[in-house]
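Hi Y.,

Following your request, here is the sequence exactly as I used it, all 145 residues.
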Amino acid sequence: MNDILNEVGATFAYGAVGIALMALGYLVVEVTTPGRLGKQIWTEGNRGAALLLAAKLFGIGGIVFTAIVTSDNDLSDGLIDTAVFGGCGIVLMIIAFLLLDVVTPGKLGATLVDADGGGKAIHPAGWVVAAADLGVAAIVAGAVS
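Below is the corresponding structure, written out as tokens. Let me know if you'd prefer a different format.
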């Protein structure tokens, strides 16, 4: 019974770190795109904004997953590794976004969430940014393992 209680506690601890990292990922998308992200996605049905957020959250989830799997059953070290590598992943995703912004015309964040004036279509650049986020996440997950 003690083992299961320890595992439940670890699950909630990792879950809290993972959710905090995904909330940080949400804030990154909020800051790098114009307008209120929640309104764009849930009220206006903006597909470009949804793609950006989904790719970032999926990538962060992959990093968190890898950090947990490779934690060697040491909860405190695993939580620290998860937070550190998750933070590294987010920082690297920001850097990748900024580099893409430099090489694209206009402001990339605005282009991604306003492809057709209403966000009903996904601008092709959205797929590039999503792939960059997932690629960076894979690199960080590889570095964790």
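DSSP finds six helices and no strands in the chain.

Thanks again,
Q.
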